[in-house]
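<goal> How does this chain fold?
<sample>
Here is the protein in question

***
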Amino acid sequence: MYFDKPGRENSEKTLELAHNRAKELNIDEVVVASSKGSTAQKVLDIFKGFKTVVVTYHCGFKAPFQPVMPDSTRAELVRRGATVISATHALSGLERSVFNKYSGAYPVLIIADTLRLFGQGTKVAVEVAIMAADGGALSGNDIVSIGGTGKGADAALILKPANQSQLFDMRIREIVCKPRHF
């Protein structure tokens, strides 16, 4: 399915489509990007019985030494059965710091920009799958991975995850939904 534009107004439909497709394919793992926790809470409501991995920003992303997701929200997600991974962005991280200081072209940033050709949410869905794999939270079986443009969710992929060190072993099996115009 293609949405007319990106954004949080697509969240409910994205989660519904992703859940339905995962059930059709007998997939029982879902990864979702969630900065403050609201999208993750919705995933936990819809994806009952799934192994749920929530991926959020690394500590210090917005302010030095400060988490973006409130500790109370993180605790609630864990209480509800989610695994919460805080990690450096797999498709920028340290390379963005070097770029900001020295400029130039860097391979990981080029990969991220290439994925953005499909939309920001699609890039995020790939990135959080890598981060969840690197965090040891996935089995290696196909997953549904959900990302968004800004707040909420607007892209869902079915993919075979991979760790950063084996990025090119990842396989995007299906694009369940994404914005058409972005």
